[in-house]
């Protein structure tokens, strides 16, 4: 009798397993795209906003045939390793800071030129037009496809020594910068000491006094809690931060024509949504950061900064491409 009960229980368990097989197979039949980024997974983080918008849009546009899995906080690696992974197909998709993309394709150095864009409208006009398309074509040749240009707003200087109101206030201050020659030369031109450093090392370096400060968009100062280790926030607005939504060319090659079309459609929707939400958050961020203890000041004379960094434009004209730079400058006049 005991044997019979055990046998029947086993049969029922087997039937239950069989009943779930179609759903399991359907799940396995989905195409999974793993999307990574280096910063926090918070409602205010620009990359997180973009990642979640893309996930929602693509899963809808693909009618459920694609599942987007999210990997924040450098779970797929720091930004530079993620870009390398995109080239070789070991990373499917990522949202990467422009300065890191520029290490692979120098044309992207255009976006990092200090004081190039006066506002988001100018930047979007350039990136959504022929200049952005040309940069995308050059990156495509290296195995990485630009799906769209998201944004984190303008970068500002933060440090523990003093407020920045003139170029002279940058002199002698050690700033962490991304591992990008445009940023290094910009701070050098202003008389500062540029310390190239991957993001994963930065928070501790500021905390321990190895560097005096860094420069970030307002939203990242909050989402990464940099206000905990820095005091002065100066609204220099020196560089517009584009965030490229990227996908590996190898990953795209594995998709059906319909899925590739869904990816393109979803990217447009996600970029528009990310820009809108991030801009709204940025408008509120100064008061938020003041409330968290930062001493905030505006810069009254940006022209003095622009004059100091003019040699940077000449130095990178050739690597960016003279025609590409001229076209961008013409559009932002």
Topology summary:
Elements: H1 2-29, E1 31-36, H2 46-61, E2 66-71, H3 79-88, E3 93-97, H4 98-104, H5 109-112, H6 120-127, H7 130-140, E4 144-159, E5 174-177, H8 181-189, E6 193-196, H9 199-207, E7 213-217, H10 218-223, E8 232-248, H11 249-253, H12 257-291, E9 295-298, H13 302-308, H14 310-320, H15 322-331
Parallel strand pairs: 1-2, 1-3, 5-6, 5-7, 8-9
Antiparallel strand pairs: 3-8, 4-7, 4-8
Helix pairs in contact: 2-12
Question: What can you see in these coordinates?
Answer:
This protein is of the alpha/beta class. The longest helix has 35 residues, at 257-291. Helix 2 runs antiparallel to helix 12. The protein has a single domain, classed as Bacterial extracellular solute-binding protein, family 7 (D-Maltodextrin-Binding Protein, domain 2), CATH 3.40.190. It contains 15 helices and nine strands. Residues 1-27 have low confidence and may be disordered. Strands 1, 2, 3, 4, 5, 6, 7, 8 and 9 form a nine-stranded mixed beta sheet that branches. Strand 5 (174-177), helix 8 (181-189) and strand 6 (193-196) form a beta-alpha-beta unit. Helices cover 53% and strands 20% of the residues.
Which characteristics define this entry?
D-Maltodextrin-Binding Protein, domain 2, 20% strand, 9 strands, alpha/beta
Number of domains as seen in the coordinates: 1
* Broad shape: globular
| Helix coverage percent | 40-55%
Beta-strand portion reads: 15-25%
CATH architecture: 3-Layer(aba) Sandwich
Structure summarized in a few sentences:
The chain has about 325 residues and is an alpha/beta fold.
